[in-house]
Design goal:
This protein has 9 helices and 14 strands. The chain is an alpha+beta fold. The chain has 2 domains: 189 residues, no CATH class; 111 residues, no CATH class. The strands form 4 sheets. Strands 1, 4, 5, 6, 7, 8, 9 and 10 form an 8-stranded mixed β-sheet that branches. A two-stranded antiparallel sheet has the order 2-3. A hairpin with a 5-residue loop joins strand 13 and strand 14.
């Protein structure tokens, strides 16, 4: 095992821990591109290329990157999850012998940990590590990627050979659950950005009290994580929306369920819910492609009517 390679990777992981403790889980491309100092030389962690190897590493990349979602375009193929619970990451180009693809193949053979940068919004990334290349399919031009656990950091295929079936299942579960969390984080950031960090109903501006509410839920056939399928709501109005206490008509007018309007239960009910009845959403995105889809609101409002 290459001691230099190992030391650089461990320093990179430590550097990312420090960044996360200072700046949170959404890290700027600027910080990641600046990287860290190693024996007097700079080691960046990200570049415009999805597969990145800094100059100090002789053979094997240190990171792979998925670009942020762009509204209105097909979701990036580079982070799809296969039926086996593994992430599919696309080759660099279509040549299996491209040096970047060879580098990831070597990472697989030596079972070396990498960093996965998931694009949340333009310029902001979530850093996930360790990830391992565990499969290579030249026909589909993809590598299979598994997300490991930081406590069980593994260097080298010899250690991996002793892994039990239960441990393999656990790693597959970690991969799927991590990817789901990343998608949700990206969706929330994109929705809140489109709504200027405000609740669409009451204009509350504290981001920590805001959620990205789905109009059609995740499991719905049309419930894709596009901003047009989301609305920025404070936690009270999100809970009311999900409970069919608060409905939003296709013309963006709020309705409160009839039994709630007839109920008497103090000022929070009056000012938190009742006073928004028959009022239009205060904040909506400027861009037509980011506004709530009328057909989605129509379908959701039917459920509200049924609950009423």
């Amino acid at each position: 095992m290459d001691d230099l390679d190992t030391r650089i990777r461990l320093k990179a992981f430590s550097f990312l821990e420090d960044l996360a403790s200072r700046y949170g889980s959404a890290l700027s491309r600027e910080l990641l591109g600046a990287g860290f100092d190693f024996d007097g030389k700079r080691v960046p962690l990200i570049s415009p290329q999805g597969i990145f190897k800094p100059a100090l590493l002789p053979e094997i990349p240190i990171s792979i990157t998925t670009a942020p979602v762009v509204e209105g375009k097909a979701r990036p193929y580079a982070d799809e999850i296969g039926s086996d619970g593994l992430m599919r990451y696309k080759y660099r180009g279509e040549d299996p012998k491209h040096r970047d693809n060879i580098g990831l193949r070597l990472a697989m053979q030596r079972h070396l940990p990498l960093i996965y940068f998931y694009g949340l919004v333009p310029g902001k990334y979530a850093a996930v590590w360790p990830v391992y290349i565990v499969g290579d399919d030249p026909k589909s031009l993809t590598f299979s990627v598994e997300i490991g656990e930081k406590q069980g950091l593994i260097f080298g295929s010899e250690q991996m050979a002793s892994e039990s079936v239960a441990e393999s299942v656990t790693r597959s579960y970690v991969t799927v659950s991590t990817q789901r969390r990343l998608h949700q984080q990206s969706f929330r950031m994109r929705v809140l950005e489109a709504y200027h960090q405000c609740c669409a109903v009451c204009r509350l501006r504290h981001a920590e009290l805001l959620d990205a509410a789905h109009i059609l839920p995740d499991g719905h056939p049309k419930g894709e994580p596009w901003v047009s399928n989301g609305i920025s709501l404070c936690k009270l109005h999100h809970a009311a929306f999900d409970s069919q206490i608060l409905g939003i008509r296709p013309d963006l007018v709020v309705e409160i369920r009839k039994d709630i309007l007839e109920e008497s239960d103090g000022p929070l009910l009056i000012h938190g819910l009742k006073e928004w009845h028959n009022k239009k959403l205060i904040v909506i995105p400027h861009s037509p492609r980011l506004k709530p889809r009328t057909d989605f609101l129509e379908e959701r409002f039917v459920l509200f009517r049924q609950a009423s």
